[in-house]
Amino acid sequence: MGLTSAFNNAFSGLNASSRRAELVSNNIANAMTEGYARREINLSSDVLNGHGGGVRVADVTRIENLVVSASRRKAEADVSSSTVTSDVFSRLAASLGDPAERGSLAVQFADLDNALLGAANDPSNQSLLDGALDQASRLAQNLNTISSDVNSLRLEMDTKIANSVDTLNGALGEIADLNLEIRERIASGGSVAALKDQQGVLIDKVNSIIPVKVVARDFERVALFTPNGGTLLDDRVVKFDFTKVPAIAHGMTFAGGALSGLIVDGSVADVNSGNQFYDGGELSALFEARDSSLPEFNDKIDALAGDLISRFQNPLVDPTLAPADPGFFTDAGGQYVSANQLGLAGRISLNALVDPQSGGQSWKLRDGLNAVVQGDTGQNAILRNLSTASQSLAAPTAGMGVTASMSAAGFASEIAAIAATEGSRWEDQNSYDGAKFSELYEAERAVTSVDTDAELQNLMEVEASYAANARVMSVLDELLNRLLEI
Fold first, then answer.
1. 251 with 343, same domain?
2. Residue 14 shares a structural domain with residue 155
3. Tell me, what's the pLDDT at 149?
4. pLDDT tens digit string along 148-169?
5. Were both Cys, which of 9, 90, 260, 401 would link to 54 (CB 3.0–4.6 Å)?
6. Are 43 and 166 in the same domain?
7. Who's near 409: CB < 8 A, 6+ residues apart?
8. Are 54 and 138 in a shared domain?
9. Is residue 178 scored above 90 in pLDDT?
10. Do the domain assignments include residue 445?
């Protein structure tokens, strides 16, 4: 081997060591960077004219495991979906309260039973009459609040859908731009590892909204589809649209045209009606909550309010009532009609004739709502009728989701129990999805993440290699100097 070849070999070794040192330092610097995948340098021997020409950097590999990443993304989409649903049912259960705790809706029903029974046992006691009216008023107001909160929660879902669609469109557009940049970088011989990192972060952002299946294209570009076959990005970006509303009232539905659906390239996409293109992930769960879970819960609360009103508007309970007169509780001042049950929980109120805050007289609770003058303070027939009506077993009204006959308080407890069970079930599902995601995330990071200890060990090897090649260069320099001195 001649001196020139020796110089070439040592010089190429120094270059390779320099590139390795650069790569190791870059790995260590990005150990905590989101989406960063560890790089490895691939070296190969260089051959010139049939002889060894030293070492050259063949390429830099971005370490990844596509199978594990795909499984992790599937788990992450499941977590995004169950997180939305779990939060919704948790908030619904919280709005009703724990049936075993003071202030809950079920306890308020039970408190009304006790207040009416107490007044019936001592009809001349004004404070007991006032207490029964106060309890009835607070119960009606609580139903109003729950109904309003559910509509507010539906509006929150609607707003989140709009935000998710905006994020989805933005991320897909950026991925398409990166596809072009990656192709140009490869064509010019440049490294695309950093661009692939950015691409991975954006794909994960899309995946949390709609589950993603990544398909490789030429020049390391990617196409994105949903697991059910919906297109997100291929040769072009699919355009998603959604129009949010400023407020949501009872009866506003997508089917009725009052709420926007998911628009894909100008056409309405089917969401949550089976194995549809864009099912799964956060977006699907938001539509499910807005259009199904929350309206069904409102139906239960409306049915509960309907049962409560109907128990007291029967003339057999209060003989002073005409057949069309509203009773102790009213539908916004009027009589309850089952055909008008939608939104009833938001309208239920205490009859103004007996409500002191509306100018009514509390003694009418004892003597009858339409009584003209106050009667014997010791008579309790109507009060006992009211107490019996509240505690008697009645068939559930439509939409309540209950099959057995129960008292008013029994229906309230059953609905609260249903909400609590659903909340607990989805909390468990979310915990399971989270644990599965964490396991797959760690498995993926075990492949792609930077082990700083290992990188420092690599750096020591680079140092030794660099020192060895530098020593060769020094010796060759001394030999050349000796030759020049002869």
1. yes
2. no
3. 96
4. 999 999 999 999 999 999 999 9
5. 9
6. no
7. 106, 109, 110, 112, 113, 390, 391
8. no
9. yes
10. no
